[in-house]
Specification:
The protein is an alpha+beta fold. It has a domain at about 90-190. The protein has five helices and nine strands. The protein has helices spanning about 105-115, 125-140, 145-160, 165-175, 180-190, and strands spanning about 10-20, 20-30, 35-40, 55-65, 65-75, 80-85, 90-95, 100, 145. The strands form two sheets. Strands 1-2-3-6-5-4 form a six-stranded antiparallel sheet, with no helix packed on it. Strand 2 (about 20-30) and strand 3 (about 35-40) form a beta hairpin. Helix 1 (about 105-115) packs across helix 2 (about 125-140) and helix 2 (about 125-140) packs across helix 3 (about 145-160).
Amino acid sequence: MRCPACGGEESKVTDSRELDESVRRRRECLACGQRFTTYERVDRLACPRCGTSDSRVTAWAELEHGLRRQRECVRCGHRFTSTERVDAVSVLVVKKDGRREGFNRAKVLEGIRKACAKRPVTPAQMEAIVDEVEAELFNTGLAEVESKRIGELVVSRLRDLDLVAYIRFASVYRPLQDLESLRRELDSLLQT
């Protein structure tokens, strides 16, 4: 895993924590001392076949922004893949009720998946939207961003990709709370 500051390839894990769909690892670069966070994610960290969380890494490959690990379940021998990526900057998301939580890529992707259900949108296109939104958030340099801003970034990309998915997603993040507001949104789409 390359250090985002100096590009060094040697780092040590200083802390590890299991999250809902990933493992967060805090790392320290052995070359420059820079601290950064990585997230290892799979659909489920447990073996998809038997549910055991004990697995061993059999192979790995370096990606542009992380690592791909080939894993084998210690219990049943099933092989599956996990991906680890670098989060160089931590961004807090400010919720509507004022709560703050770390940016969660998996939550954004899940919202997009729901909006794109039964639509001709590929998983790669959904991942690309999340990549673009994540990059834009981290490139702002802001420590906090409102959840509404994330929703607007996703909505603007879905509008160009699939109008039905756009309406589905926008109905959550915009005030489309009755049929009249939905009609106005549809009319504006039909005019463009």
